[in-house]
């Protein structure tokens, strides 16, 4: 239970602050939501850039920030084109930088365009519940490992997390299929972040949150969920 308590100590304050910013458009302050997303994007990009050597570190921030405000389709296509120019024998850092940009830019540019505070909140809540469901199911039932990228995750944890997260989403929004898609996307984006850390040979993407790592480590699963939520709607 120590790990769970540790997660809650960090997650609850961040969650309460996020709820305020998510619903700020309904309070007549839509600009506050844009500031929140922009600041989050800047922090995530800086976390990644600090793990890279120059000039690649400058490219991550210089390319990533403007792309946050492009439609996700255009931003992701641009990144794929850029990646194609380095498709022959790329370095580990280059692959990690591209994966990071795809996840951060794709997730946050999608978030900016969803423009439905209740739907965003339901998505965030469902992903958090899915993460807790995976934690409890994985620890209680054990079972085979999900992936070498994340040795602490199990298939039973995946099933428990997806089941619980999709039920919560469906009960609030009524769309259980979207709930399943969102929770599955959250797992995939979490695994992609684990792959990025393997490429960069680091335990955490940042140190803003002390022993809990960085903001990227905390929002990685949400980024993929926001992409799916935008595409679905």
Show the helix and strand layout.
Elements: H1 2-22, H2 30-49, H3 56-67, H4 72-84, H5 92-114, H6 117-141, E1 145-147, E2 150-154, H7 155-173, H8 176-200, H9 215-232
Antiparallel strand pairs: 1-2
Helix pairs in contact: 2-3, 2-5, 3-5, 4-5, 5-8, 5-9, 6-7, 6-8, 6-9, 7-8, 8-9
Task: Explain the overall architecture.
This protein has 233 residues and is mostly helical. The chain has one domain (2-232). The chain is 76% helix and 3% strand. It is built from 9 helices and 2 strands; from the N terminus they run H-H-H-H-H-H-E-E-H-H-H. Strands 1-2 form a two-stranded antiparallel ribbon. Strand 1 (145-147) and strand 2 (150-154) form a beta hairpin. The longest helix has 25 residues, at 117-141. The radius of gyration is 17 Å and the shape is globular. The mean pLDDT is 88.
Mean pLDDT: 88
Low-confidence stretches: none
Helix share of residues? over 70%
What's the overall geometry? globular
Number of domains: 1
Query: How far apart are the termini?
Result: 38 Å
Report the order of strands and helices.
HHHHHHEEHHH
Describe, in short, the structure shown.
By secondary structure, the chain is mainly α. The chain contains nine helices and two strands, in the order H-H-H-H-H-H-E-E-H-H-H. A hairpin with a 2-residue loop joins strand 1 (145-147) and strand 2 (150-154).
Observed structural traits:
2 strands, 233 residues, 9 helices, two-stranded antiparallel sheet
């Amino acid at each position: 239970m120590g790990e769970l308590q540790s997660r809650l100590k960090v997650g609850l304050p961040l969650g309460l602050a996020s709820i305020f910013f998510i619903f700020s458009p309904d309070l007549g302050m839509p600009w506050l939501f844009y500031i929140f997303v922009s600041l989050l994007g800047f922090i995530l990009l800086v976390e990644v850039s600090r793990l890279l050597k120059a000039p690649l570190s400058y490219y991550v921030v210089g390319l990533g920030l403007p792309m946050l405000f492009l439609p996700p389709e255009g931003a992701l296509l641009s990144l794929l084109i850029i990646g194609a120019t380095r498709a022959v024998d790329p370095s580990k850092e280059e692959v990690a930088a591209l994966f990071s940009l795809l996840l951060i830019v794709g997730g946050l540019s999608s978030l900016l365009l969803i423009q439905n505070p209740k739907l965003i909140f339901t998505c965030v809540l469902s992903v958090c519940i899915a993460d807790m469901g995976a934690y409890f199911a994985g620890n209680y039932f054990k079972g085979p490992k999900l992936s070498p990228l994340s040795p602490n995750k199990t298939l039973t944890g995946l099933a428990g997390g997806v089941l619980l997260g999709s039920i919560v989403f469906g009960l609030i929004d009524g769309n259980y299929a979207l709930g399943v898609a969102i929770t599955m996307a959250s797992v995939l984006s979490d695994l992609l972040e684990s792959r990025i850390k393997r490429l960069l040979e680091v335990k955490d993407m940042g140190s803003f949150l002390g022993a809990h790592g960085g903001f990227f480590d905390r929002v990685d699963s949400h980024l993929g969920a926001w992409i799916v939520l935008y595409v679905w709607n």
